[in-house]
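B., you asked whether I could sanity-check this one before it goes into the benchmark set. Here's the sequence:
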Amino acid sequence: MGHNLFIQNALSPPILFFFLGAIAYALKSDFEIPSPLPKLFSLYLLLAIGFKGGIELQKSGFNYPVIPTVIAAILMSLLIPLICFVILRFKFDVFNAAAISAAYGSISAVTFITAESFLESQNIPFDGFMVGALALMESPAIIIGLLLVKFGAPKDRPIKKKMKWGSILHESMLNGSVYLLLGSLLIGFLTSAIDPSDIKKMEPFTGDLFYGAECFFLLDMGIVAAQRLARLNKTGAFLIMFSIFMPILNAVLGSVVAKFLNLDPGNALLFVVLCASASYLAVPTAMRMTVPEARPGYYISTTLGLTFPFNIIIGIPVYMGLVNTMIPQIG
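And here's what the prediction gave me:
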């Protein structure tokens, strides 16, 4: 399965469009996407997966394994930054170690969407409630990262740079992606419960257009990732190794938890991908605002230039094999 799975994933349209964008940058093509469009498509993707997730959540209800899986996802987003921080402190100061740890404790919605497309291409079913886990894993990692700074930073840190907890909680709990995901999830849930006929009206927007929008967004991500990849030589070998091996370690931890929760293969893969992915949008925004001592080049270049492409091209098939190894009775 493994060899064919790699080829099928690498030759899927979203991954090929990702390569197309990366190659355009490498060849110094004048191809570019106007700046408002990637933002629009990212909002569209979040809306669509949130809405569809709400519909599926209404169908499945809040029975097992919904609640324990969501709780486990939140706990993983609290645990992973702490593990990362212990490792990173061998090479980095508190500010950079905490910022990078928060990024790797949080999640990447695009990696999650790519994993969903991978499962659909393999005809492996998964449940919509995993979108809830996606939305709820973003904020705890930010809070843990900032707590690490608060208790680990020098006591003479300038007052003007001290954190305001109201802003921190607002940014971590109500940042744009979390707000749109949870709101769309709730709307999908209510629509399915009150008037399911309205779902049909949304289907051309949230269904048929989704795959093409994902390809277009990954085309832009290929350009951005290639730009970040070109700057990785400034981060050092330790951080480059960390950006590859930490997702793998997190994936192993996630697969152990998925086995304990007795998740089906599709849900297990999504859970593992959430654990293995890293944030390059919400966390950098929060860290820039509250931890200006940390270098964005560290936590953005590694998550976007290396971890993100590694996960969508190589990681997802590897994690699928890991899931099938850890949970052989349902793989």
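One thing to flag: The two ends are 12 Å apart (CA to CA). Otherwise nothing jumped out at me.
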